[in-house]
Amino acid sequence: MSEKIDRDVVKKVAKLSRLELSDAEVEEFTGQLRAILEYVEKMNELDTADVEPLAHCLAISNVLRADEVTESLGTDKTLSNAPDEDGEFFKVPKILDGNSGA
Amino acid sequence: MSEIEYKLIVGLEIHVHLATKSKMFCGCALEYGARGNSRVCPVCLGLPGSLPVMNKQALEYAVLAGLALNCEIAGFTKWDRKNYYYPDLPKNYQISQYDLPFSSHGFIEIPAGTGQTKKVGIIRAHLEEDAGKNLHGSGNYSQVDLNRAGTPLLEIVTEPEMSSAAEVRSLAVELQRMVRYLGISAGDMQKGHMRFEPNVNLIITKDGVEYRTPIAEIKNLNSFRALERSVEYEQRRQLDEFLESGVVMEMGNKSTRGWDDGREITVLQREKEEAHDYRYFPEPDLVPVKLGEAWLSDIKSRLCELPLKRQMRYINEYGLSDYDAGVLTAERSTADFFENAVKAGGQPKRLCNLLAQTGLKIANERQCGVAELGVRPQGLARLVKMVESGEISASASATIFEQMVETGKSGDVLAEELNLIQKSDAGELESIVEQILGDNPQAVEDVTSGGKKSKKARGFLLGQVMQRTKGQANPKVVSEILNKKLG
Amino acid sequence: MGIPVREDREGCCFMPNELLDMGCVELREQIASGAVKSVKAAEAVFDSIAKIEPVVGAYISTFEEQAMTQAKQIDAKLAAGEKVGMLAGVPIAIKDNMCTTFGATTCASKILESFHAPYNATVVERLLAAGAVIIGKTNMDEFAMGSSTENSGLKKTVNPWDTERVPGGSSGGSAAAVAARLCFAALGSDTGGSIRQPAGFCGVVGLKPTYGRVSRLGLVAYGSSLDQIGPLTRNVADCALMMNVIAGHDPADSTSADEANAPVCDYLAKFDEPVEGLRIGVVPEFSAGAEQEVANTIGEAIEVYKKLGVEIVDVNMPHLEYAIAAYYVIATAEASSNLARYDGVHYGHRSDKAGDYIEVYTKSRAEGFGQEVKRRIMLGTYALSSGYYDAYYLKALKVRNLIRGDFTKAFERCDCLMMPVSPTTAFKQGEKVADPLQMYLADVYTIGANLAGVPGISVPCGFDGDGLPIGLQILGPVFAEDKLLRIARMFEAQTDWHRRKPALIE
After folding, report:
1. CATH class of the region C16-319+401-505
2. Residue in C252, C361, C384 closest to B281 by CB
3. Best interface-test mutation with A: which of B18, B25, B30, B37 has the largest number of A CBs within 10 A?
4. What is the pTM of this model?
5. ipTM attached to this prediction
6. Where are the domains of chain C?
7. What's the number of domains chain A is made of?
8. Which of C254, C333, C361 is the closest to B51 by Cβ?
9. Alpha-carbon torsion C76, C78, C84, C90, what sign?
10. Which pLDDT tens digit goes with each residue over B119-129?
């Protein structure tokens, strides 16, 4: 499966990850990712057909909180690390596709 | 000439803002219209190191909805991350539910024609957090407001079982009524508490062959009217498109269209929906939810009689018309008020008339519910009893009701003060009738002669009695006396 | 020999270097009794920093003014007879991936270089409540991704024992600061070995608690189901003291272990008490992969235990060899999602070359992230992407279950496992940067514990021919940190590796 890693795949993954890569980087990453994934495929030596996936180490459930209001940061603090803002909102270059990313 | 038949297929995706005090995963207040970015904390801002904690009330509201929608409630449910980038999504992933939603396989019953209902299947309902808002002003930039980010959102997906725009609207209205009855959402479309996205396509039969048009998902609908119109528009547009180009449904050619309310058309937003790769995986920062019997029973005990059932019951039990039953059950507080008045002895039909014609009119003017008018159900029941016993006329009861709201005084007191107590004492009225008869021999003649003028003369005499008694005579009793005397 | 007395009898009859040689437990006692002023301890640290930090480079930021104020406050409280916390006046360093309202929280990344958190991580709140004096934020591999601190986007940290070599990673700054006496103890984080391995490389004690033992609130997430915060100290007692401060349930962290199921204990209470009938598990074929000197030293360490009358049990853990593969899928998958938020929109670096909002993402991230971070994000994104989820991510979660099973079975037959913390001692700067996979493979001994969620501690147990420290790793069952500390102490009481100091600071 790792043989499927070529420059096009890397470019697609970079796009999904919102990373702009130079051609040199694409080249470098292609080789490295291929090697790493080849190693990772070692897991296929194990038969896991009857094994449950373990997503959470701790077997806890039902961690909830009461529906109570707590203090917010306030507009100023919320915007305090913003690269571009107008005192009330975060600013980004105009979003033209007019729909949610979803 | 080809033989064309077609069937409309619509499924709805609905997002409901749950009416909790705080957000889904943090304690920020839910407040519409607050100053931009003033209801934000490290969690809903997605700051480094922040962690979500589930709002118990949101979960319980969601389960209430699942139960009302006749769904199977999962004993084990979990959270997943839905990964995509957008400026109104600060973490660039949304915490949602993917493969194990808390409820599935249910149905909603909707009104379908007078006194009829139809069941539409519910595929699933799950919980997630809402994104913030992007604002697009006039400049070359957009603004981001995260006040809404993290609002608890209930997503409901119906089966594609609706076959007309009217049906779609009916389901939407019914669902709004339901969430309001359950008290889990204010359900105001204009405020964005509920969003409806219909998925529309047609099955066209042309010359005996069946074709399916590509599915269009419609967004940006802010009213039931827009919802209905957009489905109607899509129906026409897809038929036209098929007849012109023959395009049919294929893998991946579902499109997204936005509703333009001004021009009343849908506009293509995204072709060949580039299937977003959301890379769902279990949310590592949240643990699963196990809904045991005890907890589920506790939530079940908070279910109320659902609005459509209640409406049907009013038709069957109280003999109200479909329309009237609909008016009374439009809001739970009205229906509760009505039933309490019935329990206090008021006759249902009269109560319905008073509430529907007078009560709701005043309530709408004051922008409140009938229960907030300051009149108790018992008070209204008393008023209706006074009409039943003839103490006051039906029209007087409307006037008195208005004054009860205005002054806070009881019906009895007001009936006295306004001189609306009907004189129903036959003895008292008989002497007045005698006088009137004596004063109007010609009219008496007209009545007893039985000719063309008889009915009019009868009415004239009745009117004279009413005048003499300053409108306080019980017209029914007067009529009876007149009939007795005149035949 | 009498205790040398300084001329200014300002409440301190210890020379600065004697002060600096004290452990936290001792220092705290001396301060509480008034024998040492907190201010003197802080001064000693900052004097040390002035001399040695230019060489070691452990800190990204230091807070001298604030620290002196904190120290003065502790001294004032004590003078007024008020109660003070269990770390009162002790100078502590914090890895720069834990949010603090003071200074920046950079994660050693250009993308967060000027990020100022509006809240303190829970562990930081606990340190402050305990009266700790915070010296500064330490250097690390960018976003905790690395095993040498060479991936820091901001500066270089060297190993105090040999400045040509790496301090280990990703908590290299914390480990170096403790070893070089630039603080009395430090907090680090461990996702695949990032506390234990640098502790081993720098000759200090480092503990990764059970997953969920310590709150993750305010710890900048890398691999959320693997991350834990833990102490780096010069001896076992200090480690126990630090655990007393930071361990415990946090309702704001949904993955934090609750009191009912995992009650916290006083880790100092019995730490000096040997464990009766101790059974030590070893995994021979596994440990045999280490370099000869390391393997020998570990063997010698285990001999020390043998002399105390313990039982050594050979344990089979057949799935451990797949741990690296599983880790580099799970950790990178979670990281690819955790780091999506660094997009130049709401905080952090924004590229000034961005044309549209998409370029705000792609260029800001390209400029702000280092290569290792980009590599892991891409790896994780790929592992989760449509069509590959089952083959990589789901598969890795299943392998994880098998690995946890190995540990559970092992702990039925022994009280702890012992093995090297790393196959080598500290390598030279630049030696492993060319081949990322080779760097990953060096995590072989530490990674299993993160996947299984079990606690592990590294204690100094010797030096190689080049004078570089070697760490003995001890792993235990979940929530058995108290026992682990006692087992570690058993060894420490018999040896004096932990008292050695790098030549640099003599």
Report:
1. alpha beta
2. C384
3. B37
4. 0.92
5. 0.95
6. 16-319+401-505, 320-398
7. 1
8. C254
9. positive
10. 999 999 999 99
